[in-house]
Amino acid sequence: MLSWVDEPPININVIRYEDMTSRPVDTFTSVIRFAGWPIDRVRIQNAIERSSFRQIRRQEEEMGFIERQSSPTLFFRKGKVGSWRETLSEDQVDRLVPDHHQVMQRFRYLNETGKPVY
What we know:
Layout: H1 17-22, H2 24-35, H3 41-50, H4 53-63, H5 84-87, H6 90-106
Helix pairs in contact: 2-3
């Protein structure tokens, strides 16, 4: 069991940031379908545009972001897939992968040899 992901009777649809950036229409459509709402391509496209990294970063700069810890840095850092490689040290990655291997493998963050893919 993977904690909240497998907790019955909650029905969860996990989406990855990588999928939202590489296949936004497909990913957002899957969320709408999961919610049981009618598929409306125009509304989906509007939602994609309004939730772009550029938009949410601008909103945070203008209005703040309540979930952000009391830190001078912005919550929405870069919005770039793989930017963790520029932020985490090799030692941190060496600890992260073994500690979270099961979850990372399940959600396709590791390749067949167990190395990070993004």
